[in-house]
Amino acid sequence: MGKKLLLANDHIPGIQSYEVYRSNGGYQSVEKALKNLKPEDIVEEVKKSGLRGRGGAGFPTGMKWSFLAKPEGVPRYLVCNADESEPGTFKDRYLMSRIPHLLVEGMITSSYALGANTSYIYIRGEYYYVAQILEKAIAEAYQNGWLGQNILGTGYHLDLYVQVGGGAYICGEETALLESLEGKRGNPRIKPPFPAIAGLYGCPTVVNNVETIAAVVPIVNEGGDSYAAIGIGKSTGTKLISASGHIKKPGVYEIEMGITVEEFIYSDEYCGGILNDKKLKAVVAGGSSVPILPADKILTTPTGEKRLMSYESLAEGGFASGTMLGSGGFIVMDENTSIVENLYTFTRFYHHESCGQCSPCREGTAWMEKLLHKILDGHGTLADVDLLWEIQSKIEGNTICPLGDAAAWPVASAIRHFRAEFESFVGSSTAKHAIH
Amino acid sequence: MAKITIDGKTIEVADGTTILQAARMIGPDVAPPTMCYYSKLKTSGGYCRTCLVEVSKGSEKDPRPMPKLVASCRTTVMDGMEVKNNTSEKVTDARKGVVEFLLLNHPLDCPVCDQAGECHLQDLSYEHGSAKTRTDFERRNFEKIDIGNYVQLHMNRCILCYRCVKVADQITDGRVHGVINRGDHAEISTYIENAIENDFSGNVIDVCPVGALTDKTFRFKSRVWFTKPENAHRDCPTCSGKVVVWKKGDEILRVTGRKDQWGEVEEFICNTCRFETKKASDWTIEGPAHVNKHSVISANHYEVLEKPQELTINQIRPIAIDQQND
Predict the structure, then answer these.
(1) B48–A contact, CB cutoff 8 A
(2) Which of A284, A347, B73, B321 has the fewest CB atoms within 10 Å, counting from its CB?
């Protein structure tokens, strides 16, 4: 069994409630932080831990925190990004609904470290019931003196709010999230300035993923070094993986970074192998936006070694033969899956969620969806496959926010690794069904 | 001060200047095209991605190139920065892609569009686009909407540059229009077709780079290249009263703001000047308006043309000898 830091207590009955959470060691990090540590010490511990943003980009959290501008007389904000909307990713939902106090605790400790006196949890509208669970947890934290004025008699005060979004994927992009939180249309801002300089209401702001903030709790409790001892290389600590698709045991798993992909898919501790013992065809390793990899490439790196569940190992080989850990949305596809149909679903999603500000994403995502629909219907030509490749290459890197890249990468990787499957649709309306 | 080199040409500019502004200072040869940026409107730019450039050297301090192309209208210069615009294949390629995206849903109804001849999208696609379209999908379709008595919105032609939204935000009060819906369904709207009631609302027509917002007092009256632009002014209590009147014979067909070489108005004008002052006797004519060279309108007449100098026989040298000497 791997070490568990976030989900160690998730099996305990009643862990949702304050009493049970507290009696199992909850809120220790707040006590330790507020009474014994200076804010800079916590930032230092987080830096030492090597914790990287768990929302998808994997940016070092300690570094992000140290970028936060600290002008005199200007409030600073911590915003938790709970707008988990990437297809294939559902770890934050599990964590928040199962152990809500862990996030609340992490928010308090992190807010203290950043010198924020008002913090927000921005949660997607579809997670309304989760928001209610969080509201309850926050109310309990207020009642027991963990939030509000003069916490633990230290003079530190913090107000924590839950804001429910309208259900837009784009609001998971940090600047669109801030716009939405301010009550505006959720359009990504043009950067610079970055939120660390001018974020919420123009004030310095840190936006972190739910899992990142939760991970601050064990880091403060046990020290950054002990967190960094888990994992491999620059992928330290544990990671929540949302496993879905054709596997025997779909669900949310906390893994120690560095176990092999093979172990994750086939061992009984995790996915338990492919459903109905079919053959593995492909894996999308980090949520729908990361490149899809065929079985051989996801299991082994280009140098012939076993691929590991870590930021570096999954990325090995670049986009030619590698992918990304992303948000940890691990989608497994068996031999009967149609890559093109799956891609069509992804592409339709990105088209639907494009905010429409910049032209490559607004027009390109719609165009790709139409072309894929045409190909799936058997009306496509070989030139259409080339055109699809061209379109994604014109979107990638040329947009305001990463949604453009997120729409382009799945298309690029599907064509790169499964071109023959696209071509099998050309000139045949029955091709669609041949794969089943 | 920051020294910046764009396509091999160096200029020194004040800190905080954007790459685009610096490029415009150098001149039109190196200035990237723009569809959404408008120097008179705050926070404009960044949307259309036509002005993407390659930063091949970040600055003197940190010479690393920037990993992605950047929007020159929203990126400020650093001392020692080196930028490639027309000299970068990546830029030309990306720009061609952007033009294709912008035209994807554009109806190309230029023959019946009032903007034809002074349309920035026409210029852009002529200079940076391809001759052929690669799509045969149906384009998006909207009903035409009247925004008040003077302005018509033809959403099919809109490229969502957000300029008109910024005008409404920044130079008129009580903004009632904005963008609704998302992605390629997004549209400029006045929320249940509210009229824009404002002295300066007509400026949305001048800032529109395409024919999405047109002047109803001028619609279908004439192709712009058959009209003669003249600078004119009058005493106006609301605005500066400095305009261009577009005449056919002695009749004034329309009134617009005066535009600079980048196609931006020099000053915003009021609705009274624009829509309601069309008698020739209302205006003091100053003389022919300068029309940018690249516009088809400039092919007509006006201004003092320089007569090409006739070469004397001694000045003519055989081309072949020149080449040998080189």
Answers:
(1) yes
(2) B321
Whether residue B229 has a cis bond before it, omega within 30° of 0: no
Regions of chain A where pLDDT drops below 70: 428-436
pLDDT, residue B296, reads 59
Long-range contacts for A17-22 (Cβ within 8 Å, ≥24 apart)?
A: A17/A140, A18/A101, A18/A137, A18/A140, A18/A141, A18/A143, A18/A144, A21/A99, A21/A101, A21/A102, A22/A101, A22/A144
> A359 and B105: CB-CB below 8 Å?
no
Looking at this protein, which amino acid is placed at residue B176?
A: V
Is 0.85 exceeded by the ipTM?
Answer: yes
* Separation of CA B158 from chain center: 14
Q: Which residue of B has its CA nearest to A403?
A: B183
Contacts of A362 in chain B (CB under 8 A): 101, 160, 183-184, 186
Q: Please check whether residue B248 is in contact with residue B228, taking contact to mean a CB–CB distance below 8 angstroms.
A: yes
- What distance lies between CA A160 and its chain's CA centroid? 22
Q: What is the DSSP string of B119-181?
A: -HHHHHHHHHS-SS----SPPP----EEETTTEEE-GGG-----HHHHHHHHTSSS---EEES
**Which residue is associated with the tokens 């988990």?**
A84
pLDDT in tens, A342-385: 999 999 999 999 999 999 999 999 999 999 999 999 999 999 99
Taking an 8 Å cut-off on Cβ atoms, the answer to whether A362 and B48 are in contact is no
Answer yes or no: is pLDDT of B23 > 60.
yes
| pTM given for the model | 0.91
User: What distance in Å separates the CA atoms of residue A415 and residue A418, rounded to the nearest whole number?
Assistant: 5
Which H or E run contains A242? strand A238-245
Alpha helices in chain B (DSSP H): 19-26, 89-104, 120-128, 163-170, 203-207, 271, 319-325
- Are B159 and A356 in contact (CB < 8 Å)? no
A185 reaches B (C-beta below 8 A):
yes
**Are B98 and A359 within 8 A, CB to CB?**
yes
* pLDDT one-digit tens code per residue, B41-65: 999 999 999 999 999 999 999 999 9
Count of pairs with CB atoms under 8 A, one residue in A, one in B: 90
Q: In what order do the strands lie in the sheet with B242-248?
A: B251-256, B242-248, B228-233, B284-288
Could B179 and A400 be called an inter-chain contact, meaning their C-beta atoms sit closer than 8 Å?
Answer: no
Which residues of chain B make contact with A394, given a CB cutoff of 8 A? 93-94, 97-98, 100-101
B contacts of A169 (beta carbons < 8 Å): none
- Are A389 and A395 contacting, i.e. CB atoms less than 8 angstroms apart? no
Q: How far is B226 from chain A (nearest CA, A)?
A: 33
Contact A91, A97 (CB under 8 A): no
In this prediction, residue A135 carries a pLDDT of 97
B19 CB within 8 Å of a chain A CB: no
The rounded distance, in Å, linking the Cα atoms of B72 and B7 is 13
Residue B186 near chain A (CB below 8 Å): yes
Q: Would an 8 Å CB–CB cutoff place A358 in contact with chain B?
A: yes
Residue from the list A352, A356, A393 with its beta carbon closest to the beta carbon of B186: A356
pLDDT digits (tens, 9 = 90+) for B194-221: 656 778 889 999 999 999 999 999 999 9
List the beta bridge partners of residue B101: none
Q: Give the span between the Cα atoms of A169 and A351, in whole angstroms.
A: 11
How near does any CA of chain B get to the CA of A29, in Å?
A: 39
DSSP, collapsed to helix, strand or coil, labels residue A262 as: helix
User: Maximum Cα–Cα distance for chain A, whole Å?
Assistant: 74
Ramachandran bin of B52, using left for φ above 0, alpha for ψ from -120 to 50, beta for the remaining angles:
beta
* Residues of chain B above pLDDT 70, percent: 87
Residues of B within 8 A of A399 (CB-CB) are 49
